[in-house]
Design brief:
The chain is about 70% helix and about 0% strand. It has two domains: about 110 residues; about 130 residues, Four Helix Bundle (Hemerythrin (Met), subunit A). It is built from nine helices and no strands. The chain is mainly α and about 300 residues long.
């Protein structure tokens, strides 16, 4: 007997019983802020080292110091770009305590000045004017190319800094748990479960950002950021060790079900905190309207 075609995506197809929209595989993915442009700055130190090996004691020492300074500048730049990306990704953030990009520009100028002085010294013209000019030009160009560090706090008006510091410490520990989970799951050697773990981590970070934006939510979310994540970390380590040895499909299914439960609970906690924030806003509006009415102001 003929049967009408239908399916999940048909107009009259069955609807999903799960009201939560599934997170896409690439949702929350971010481009590495320290890309090829920043990594290329590690290269100038390499030929400088080899060219300095046969330049005598003074020339070799100056060249090696210049190479070390340039390498340090490249490391600082990479960390500065990552710190800036984290700053831009958050609605509330403090400026970096250490301006890495500014110091990277200064070290780049110093490294170029030392390399130019080494060349002047080997040519018998140990002057300082040309190296200083080369160093200033290199530092300015570096700063123009990569910009400056954020120099002021963002969205911190009306936020208790003491509570913000408490949140920062808790979130830092929670991020350490997520990092440990990422390191452990690699031992399982299953790309699909790694992607599943990444989706849960993005859901957990949504909770982090919500607590950071309103530190008053820390009391209700603390067990999620500490107890639950620590348990998830321990379960991930145990699963990776077992699955790497046995490739047990039941262990894989159990761990995937655990991630589903964790993601649903973390997402529900985030939604509840957002609804509570909205209720607080509604209360503030109602109180203000009542005060205006008592003052004789008519509100339509």
């Amino acid at each position: 007997m003929a049967k009408r075609f239908g399916g999940k995506y048909s107009p009259d197809g069955p609807s999903s019983s799960d009201p939560q929209t599934q997170r896409g595989q690439f949702q929350g993915a971010r481009v590495e802020p320290a890309g090829a442009r920043a990594n290329l700055l590690f290269l100038p130190a390499i030929p400088l080292i080899f060219l300095s090996l046969n330049d005598g004691a003074i020339g070799m020492t100056i060249g090696l110091i210049a190479a070390g300074v340039l390498t340090s500048a490249a490391f600082l730049l990479r960390e500065g770009l990552r710190a800036e990306a984290a700053y831009n990704a958050r609605r509330t953030a403090r400026r970096p305590s250490f301006p890495r990009k500014i110091f990277a520009s200064l070290l780049t100028g110093l490294g170029i000045a030392l390399a130019a002085y080494r060349t002047e010294f080997l040519d018998g013209q140990a002057g300082l004017v040309a190296p200083i000019l080369f160093g200033i030009a290199a530092g300015v160009l570096h700063s123009v190319s990569f910009g400056m560090d954020p120099m002021k706090d963002k969205g911190m008006e009306g936020i208790d800094t003491f509570q913000q510091d408490r949140v920062a410490r808790v979130v830092e520990d929670a991020e350490a748990h997520l990092t440990a989970m990422t390191d452990a799951i690699k031992r399982a050697g299953d790309r699909q479960i790694e992607s599943r773990l990444e989706r849960f981590q993005e859901t957990a970070r949504d909770l982090f950002r919500t607590v950071e934006e309103d530190p008053r939510d820390l009391a209700g979310a603390r067990k999620y950021l500490t107890v639950y994540l620590q348990g998830a970390r321990d379960a991930t380590i145990k699963f990776s060790d077992v699955y790497a040895r046995t490739r047990d499909p039941q262990a894989l299914a159990d761990y995937a079900a655990l991630l589903d439960d964790l993601e649903q609970n973390f997402a529900a906690r985030t939604r509840k905190m957002l609804l509570d924030d909205r209720s607080d806003m509604t209360v503030e509006i109602d109180v203000l309207r009542e005060r205006l009415q008592r003052e004789g102001v008519r509100l339509d």
